[in-house]
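Methods, example record. To illustrate the input and output format used throughout this study, we show the complete record for DNA replication and repair protein RecF. The sequence lines were provided to the predictor; the line carrying structure tokens was produced by it.
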Amino acid sequence: MRVSSISLRDFRNYAEADITIEQGCVVLVGSNGQGKTNLIEAINFLATLGSHRSSTESAMIRTGEDAAIIRVHLAHDDRQILLEAQLNREGPNKAQFNRSTARLRDFPRYIATVLFAPEDLLLIRGDPASRRRFLDELIVTRTPRLSSILSDYERALKQRNTLLKTARFSEASVGKLSTLDIWDDRLATLGSEIMVERQRLVRDLAGPVAAAYESIAGADHHPELLMKESVLLPLGDSTIDQTTQAFLAVLNSNRATEVERGMTLYGPHRDDVEFSLNSLPTKGYASHGETWSFALSLRLGAARLLRAESVLGDPILILDDVFAELDASRRERLASAVSDFEQIFITAAVVEDVPAALLQHVFRVERGTIARALK
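The corresponding predicted structure is encoded as:
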């Protein structure tokens, strides 16, 4: 799968942009703040329905405008796909698939991306929320229907927390909160699917991440991933039914505590995944170089996993301002590790940061305009 053209209207700092893109490696070069990352953000949005830089879609609409439009042509073998998204400051967003009205939430079925940015160091050093987001974006890419499961879980969690807060200040006894039983069932049913999918993902990622780490770092430091659930699950691979029952048991036995706290203390929204090198947690023990290598390996491992599973071919690999942070040896090893992907987007402040083997199609970005660089 690859992007063959992209058109933007009133997206970030682009009033208007139209470029044709070839297969292979596309390098976007320009100073900070010129629009390099905005371009790859637009592509990534269609695949993930979110931004890696902003929690609100309105931030992607050009200042003073009511809507932004992203239009991307995709090519896979002989198949051509046109995806169009209109992000509205007021009212719901709109989408079209091959010029016909479509649902934006279905777009991940047609386009897959894997994006690495310097912010990914938070996967190693940051709080559990960043790691949960990494897992959930990937399970949606693998199984798009999980997008609605995650959304429904967030709504159920919000409703349950509202009820718990109400009960906290109510004279009614905990035992009379019959409505809470309904939300317990709803939360456990949805949450169990998320937990089982995360378990499967972590298991399947182990091999690709280990191989990616060795290819980038040039050494085998035995990278490992381990889910750390707030709900104690049976040993081995848990079924959805087993996970649901375990979840319900925890909610039931801890109801008084949750009412007292006014919040849901157990479930996938409280889970984490632990990363380790040589049996030591990366957080607090890994060096700066090891941290970069592990973060890169998570993304490259994810790309290789999607490549093995997808009927659409390779995911589109995006490396946003990565090479400037790597030493010369890691740059060359990373270039070698990604060179066989069908399409790669790279952003860089200066072209010298990018290994020569990846300088196939170079564009210069300046003040929201894009022009092919002369060779």
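Annotations derived from this record:
The radius of gyration is 22 Å.
The chain has a mean pLDDT of 92.
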